[in-house]
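Hi support team,

I'm opening this ticket because the web form for multi-chain structure prediction keeps timing out on my end. I have pasted the exact lines I submitted so you can reproduce it. The total is 637 residues across two entries, so I didn't expect it to be a heavy job. Is there a limit I'm missing, or should I split the entries? Thanks in advance, R.K.
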Amino acid sequence: MEEQIIYIGLAAVFGIFMAWGIGANDVANAMATSVGSKALTIKQAILVAAVFEFLGAVLAGGEVTSTIRKGIVDANLLSSTPELLVYGMLASLLSAGTWLLIASRNGWPVSTTHSIVGAIVGFAAVGIGIDAVQWGQVGTIVVSWVVSPLTAGFIAYLIYMSVQRLILSQEDPLARAKRYVPIYIFFAAFTITLVTILKGLKHVGMDISLTNSYLLATGIAVAIALFGMVMIQRIKPDPKAEKKQHFYTVEKVFAVLMVVTACSMAFAHGSNDVANAIGPLAAVISVAQSGIVGAQSALPIWVLFIGGVGIVIGLATFGVHVIATVGKKITQLTPSRGFAAELAAATTIVIASGTGIPISTTHTLVGAVLGVGLARGIEAIDLRVVGRIFVSWVVTIPAGAFLSIVFFFIFKTVLP
Amino acid sequence: MLANIFGTSPVMPLEKHVGIAYKCVKELNEFFAAAIAEDWDRASEARDRVTQLEHEADDLKKEIRIKLPKSLFMPVPREDLLELLLVQDKMANRAKDVSGIVFGRRMVIPTSIADEFLEFVQRNVDAAKQARKSVRELDELFTSGFRGAEAALVEGLLEELDQIETDTDDRQAALRWSLFEVEKEYNPVDVMFLYQVIEMTGEIADMAERVGRRLELLLSH
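Hello R.K., no limit was hit. The queue was backed up. Here is the completed structure from your submission:
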């Protein structure tokens, strides 16, 4: 009994540390686009992030958590030695947390998801045995790391092209924007709500039929779009600002849309990234409580809750400054372009969350920004930096794996 | 980290650069008015302003170039933007060269062609102004993706620029003829230089027109 408390206590501490790290660092990338485009002030961004990261984690974080918890390691091999899984998951949390700390100290753009998956694969393959890793599942995850930025890029390209054709290149872009932006709002709200209802809610114990799901998603999306419409109608042209920049008021209209996509982005991020902190924690708790590996017990909702709280604390303590710094640098991403990137990324991420695939939020967003760039939406993208970001995940996986192997053997010796 | 993928946008700096180049060219009005009046103190002040603005344009040009590394991915070819920057800069260069010769030699412009000459300078300044007006649409062009209503608007501006340039050509020919009619009354060396000054002044409008050509190229991508 005593050792179980130690396990759960350690896992909770490491898990919250990890969630805190995600909130402090990762969330900034998700929210900075909105701050940079001046659609939200820093305070509003923090509020939006806190609320929607939390909602995303609790309402739609279940599938990915379950993948991290029992999808990567083959539990059947561990039924006689459940403590190995506990050591491994503790080691993974500690290793991913440490690696992220090192990386952010040095300003390397690494992904939380890549660290934790690398760590889990590492301890399982070396600490337990090559066969302990469910390579098929790992393969799917790795492929999705390539596919998700591409998908987000493609969607962003299409969205921004449509914005250019329908609004920006037209004779009267303001009237056009007022007409079309509510439709984009509808789509943004609809996708996110639908995926959440279809894939996420069953983890919270709600089961809604397919037809009802569509109806509910449509209803919510229409309500949000109508609200957006009212906000848009209240925007009046500012002739003085308009003189300096013809698209000033048009961008104001897009800013309304960007508030919606910012919420989506925070929600999507919460739904996918909370698992990186909470998945291993959930695995430890499940083993410690039942003494059995791979028990069919459902994910306790309070675990997701802890993850959500951890992220919000990280956001409030450190994330604020990071968002401010990053936001100041992203001035090229005006609302008309930023929304396209955010909507594409959020959609991709939420779909991945619904399918239970842990992907990198940052990489997906980078893919989306490149998509807008390909549609001639961004004045200058530094391809060297893009290259560095994508190369960094190749380094992160072995680094996370190596650290987790070291920690695993330490825990195996030290812990009861 | 995400923030670093955005390179420095050259758009606003380019607009700023053309503004400085225009201001530099515009000083020629004052400079030639003073030179014709043979008020060399006033001319010297105008000449100083031309030189200073030309320097400013030059510094900005270098800064923009440094911030446009080959690794940048942009909606239009980097080379076209650099070429645009170069011709913008040449407007200021010509203004500096021409004021340099006139001031250095304390050149006397024959009174019989003085008015015609000043009008000719003014038209060149107009061309530079129109070039500035066109380049200042660059940010809107980027926003609208170089197509549709905004592209049409810029095409209109460039047409006007072409007309101004043609007008300066006509005036240049007429001015040369007027000078030819009175050239025998003046020192041959001075007259030779006068022809050169007219030629160089006219190049300002040529450069302005090339700014237009460059913008047109951007539109066609």
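A quick check on our side: The mean pLDDT of chain B is 93. Let us know if the file doesn't open in your viewer.
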